Amino acid sequence: MTLSPEQQAALDQLLAHVPSGNGHTPPPANDALHTWLGISSADVKARLLDLLNKKDDLEARLLDLVKGSPLDSAFGFLLASAWAFYAAEKDANPRIKTFIDAFYYIATCASVGYADIFALTQPGRAIASLVMILGPALTNAALDRPAETRPSGR
Question: pTM to 2 decimals?
Fold first, then answer.
């Protein structure tokens, strides 16, 4: 198939606006991430590798925060998890009508593991799983601090 001179000129004009030389290559035509989310698989891979390179520093900072303010860390984790769970489940789960419904479910995931609400979406299940793994450890850090880190007189 050959292009007419007008078509070629229009194509050249369109491609003139495409950035080049920034180290990013255009995504392949079958890149589903780029099609649906506007970010290419190569960009996701690059960002994940960047995070992995920063992992040790991020982990140390997170552990310092948890050790320094365990109750604040646990409560912040629960609030953020409840917000994410609410966002994932509110339109799909008839048991999640309010943020408090989501907070109730997430709080039980982090403690006793019982609730009369269940995650129905895949993101909701992933969030609940993360809370079930990390929640008890954060609760333990908040409630069972070693004697040398407790305020005096307690």
Answer: 0.56
